[in-house]
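Listing S7. Sequence submitted for prediction.
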Amino acid sequence: MTIYRGTLEQLAAILFVGAAAFALFVAYRYWRRGAWRRTAVAAAALAALAAATLAAAYTVAPNLPAAPLWTRFAANPVPPAAEHVSAGRTAFQTKCAVCHGPRGRGDGPAALTMVPRPLDLTVHVPLHGDGEIFWFISEGIGGTQMPAWKNDLTETERWQLVRYLRELAAGRP
């Protein structure tokens, strides 16, 4: 599993928040004349780990876009029925296939002119949760030509598209 820059940035932010919470606890314990050194060491360790994570994010991790962390846990409200997958297929063929190709491999007719090239969805869809894919479809992907579809497709159509992409990535187009 590849860890991307956005994921490391989010992890570093969580670690910095933890270090700040520990620092507040250290200040409280110091003010109350309690034992504070062990907690201070933990706060410093968290801050150092956060800094190392952020350094790794900007030096070795690939810079691919990441959806906000909360989207990973969003469930698809559209049931996995055949009519929803078929509706998702229709949306894909009309909106997405020109760039991603009919099988989602990033080889559509417009892909040759794009920098960066569209991603192979059969590889990238399994790496993300349904909520993340929905977010990418809705908001687009910065730094690429992937547009935001939230104004052109309804919420249900975008979730149906996620259902279809799951089927496509599983080899059941």
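Caption to Listing S7: primary sequence and predicted structure tokens for the chain studied. The chain has two domains: 5-59, 69-169. The domain at 69-169 is CATH 1.10.760.10 (Cytochrome Bc1 Complex; Chain D, domain 2).
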